[in-house]
């Protein structure tokens, strides 16, 4: 992972879960290993909400094609060719929450993703993450209210 600054430790167990899920998605993409296997390798003794992390990863496995389709147009619209794999993994993780976990406020998903992007992404990459997730949220809300 491309780390430009010393990552800040997660504030709570759910934040720690999001960080582990993002790391698992990123590593699985690079290694072609199943995401759940990567998660089990990455988790070790880190304190986090295990059930929340597993729920996110199960949703990722179940909906990866839909997630990629939902993001395809958003990434192209922003001309985000500079979106790194780190940032893409963060966007995927947050999109799972936005689309499939309506009890989690979108603002929370986006803010957590921005923190991860600032800690792990390229300088300024958090702006792309914010823009993409804002578009996903607007599209989801318009579909949900239709």
Structural class: mainly alpha
What string gives the helices and strands in order?
HHHHHH
Q: Any idea what the radius of gyration is? A: 14 Å
- The share of residues in extended strands comes to under 5%
Broad shape: globular
Largest sheet: none
Instruction: List unreliable stretches of 5+ residues.
Output: 1-5
Mean pLDDT: 85
The total strand number stands at 0
Distance between the termini: 40 Å
The percentage helix is over 70%
- Tally of individual helices: 6
Structure commentary:
By secondary structure, this protein is mainly alpha-helical. 74% of the residues lie in helices and 0% in strands. It contains six helices and no strands. The protein has helices at 13-31, 35-43, 50-77, 85-100, 106-120, 125-145. Helix 1 (13-31) packs across helix 2, helix 1 packs across helix 4 and helix 3 (50-77) crosses helix 6 (125-145). The longest helix has 28 residues, at 50-77. The model is unreliable at 1-5 (pLDDT under 50).
Name the descriptors.
146 residues, mainly alpha, 6 helices, 74% helix
